[in-house]
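User: Here's a protein and a ligand (adenosine-5'-triphosphate). What would the complex look like?
Assistant: Let me lay out the input and then the predicted complex.
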Amino acid sequence: MLTRRSIARRFLTGAAVVVGVAVVTIFVVDALVSPAIFHAHLMQADLSNPETVLRHVEEGMRSSNMIALAVAILIAVLAALLVSLYLATRVSASLAPLAAAARQVAAGDYTARVDAGPLGAEFDELTEAVNAMSQRLASVEQSRTRLFSDLAHEMRTPIAVVQAQLEGIEDGVVGVEDSIPVLRAQAERLTRLSSDIGLLSQAQEHALRYEFAPGEVASVVRGCVDDMALRYREAGVQLTLDVATHARAQLDTARFAQVITNLLANALNATVSAGRGRTGDRGGHVHVGVRRHGNEVAVQVRDDGVGISPEELPHVFDRFARVGPARDRSSGGFGIGLTVARAIMSAHHGRISADSPGPGRGATFTVTVPVLH
Ligand SMILES: Nc1ncnc2c1ncn2[C@@H]1O[C@H](COP(=O)(O)OP(=O)(O)OP(=O)(O)O)[C@@H](O)[C@H]1O
Ligand SMILES: [Mg+2]
């Protein structure tokens, strides 16, 4: 409580100074005035009459006490004023920059930062809290601005395609019949964007509702692998599953399956983009492993696709992530799957991580959840 620089210690020291000054004043004034007063009284007393001696001694005592006390009170009041003035100046010197920073933040300027004031550890803590608050607001504001520009960017392509088609129809270059599938595809893309954004904002605000129940991780993974098998077959990419544990975990099966399905879809895209599979000249392969490591079950999805460079690796979980060799954003996903996956895994008290030896050398995504005992 009473740390070396705490404000309580400073106030206590101030009070002790006032009391000390008063006590010292009493002693000093008493020592200075008492002898003269006693001397004057004794000179006036009739030494042969003990009663007058006693009366003069008592009066001398009273007046020297009164004088010492009056001077001490005066000096103590002065000392209290000086100490209060000193403390008040220090307090306002510490509070003024904090108030200015709070006003700056309230006005929307999140660059406000306060230096530690001259008064006490408590004020330093307050300063740190104000700085942390404005820093956090600045980063929220920055990500909000980025979100809008990302959104505008994602909407631009389908809208441009729709506009081009309409102009083609007006100019008679494109037939209405021909443009319907194109227009429909872009409308579907915009619909998907709006539902993905809804999902993303719910996930980031921790507003997704989960229904957890004990479930076997491997069986959910097997279900996802079965569901994706056809797409893999059509793309000519081999998909294998190796289950080494039947451990159970607290799962929201639908959401957990969503994470695994996104990983399988990403791995397929990365493999096909690397020129593997049916369209490429080399066969691609995605391997899924379910293992237990201590108190966790890990699901690993390993592909031999385009891979991810070390600089891009930390950004694959960013929303609207655009990673790898210039991706065609007019047809692929919006880069939301992994952002939502991370939120879902954190709700499962688990993790999701990405690893890649580098571009062209494949990637491995790992999801872990705590084992249910
Ligand atoms: N296995 C992988 N190999 C290489 N790059 C990958 C892999 N998985 C993801 N990425 C990169 O990370 C980006 C983000 O993935 P994410 O799943 O979040 O979005 P997406 O698949 O593009 O779209 P969607 O929102 O439909 O999932 C991908 O666009 C891709 O560039
Ligand atoms: Mg995806």
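Summary: Strands lie at 213-216, 237-243, 248-251, 284-293, 296-303, 351-355, 363-370.
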